[in-house]
Amino acid sequence: MNQEDKSANLKIVSVNMLLLLVSTCLTNLSKDGPIYDMMIIGFHVVLCIMLAIVNKSWTWFLSGLMVIIIGFSTCVMGANVHI
């Protein structure tokens, strides 16, 4: 794997994690945040899997897997925390 591939893979993962962070922060502003967050994360994961198939890239699939694992844990944590 050359340096350009590593840089492209890092960009894919970074953008997906940034989108997850922004969507989680924005949806937690309302009382129904975890429900909206779950829907956005579901759409995000489906989009990552579709891009993995189209681009034939494991990076998109693994990035989608990270989004669903991290996103699910934040949904569960957000639903259980009452401020």
Protein traits:
single chain; mainly alpha
Gross morphology: elongated
Number of extended strands: 0
Fraction of helical residues:
over 70%
Stretches where pLDDT is under 50 for at least 5 consecutive residues are none
Please compute the radius of gyration using only Cα atoms.
14 Å
- Judged by helices, strands and strand pairing, the structural class is mainly alpha
Number of helices: 3
Global mean pLDDT: 86
Could you give a short account of the major beta sheet? none
Strand content: under 5%
How far the N terminus sits from the C terminus, by CA atoms, comes to 47 Å
The SSE string, one letter per element, is: HHH
Structure in words:
There is one protein chain. The chain is 86% helix and 0% strand. The chain is an all-alpha fold and 83 residues long. It has a domain of 32 residues. The chain is built from three helices and no strands. The longest helix is centred in the N-terminal third of the chain and has 25 residues. Helix 1 packs antiparallel against helix 2. It is elongated and about 45 Å long.
